[in-house]
Model the fold of this input.
Amino acid sequence: MHKSIEIDERIFQEAVKFYGTVFSLPPLASKIYAYLLFDYHKAGITFDEFVEVLSASKSSVSTSLSLLLNAELIVDHNKMDERKRYFFINDGYKKLRFEKIVQKMHDELKLLDDLDHFKKNRDDGYGNDQKMEAYKALLNKNIINIQESLNKL
Done:
């Protein structure tokens, strides 16, 4: 079995489980992503290496790579003098991921504000919900914190 990188089996298995859950990935896609985490030198991993190292069919590896590419979790490129494609972790995805999280928090805040506006326009004695206001304040605070960190990336 040819490996171009060295992996720690325990960390690899933890990464497979973690990223499979976080990104809702099927098992093989999660293994490919976890394997790429060990490519510290950014040399890239070829399609053939994934097939060999993960003992998976070419069609399964191809499907998983397509899923990861479409999700922007990985990127690929061809070296000038070779036909092979090399796959890498998309370092820009960390920023994209948190931008998506911030957008979801903004969307939730808008929905909560719309709901609050609807409730206040009803004539049923609706009062100010302190827990909801605390939740909205927490969302706003987290948006600011994440946005400040994103500006540093």
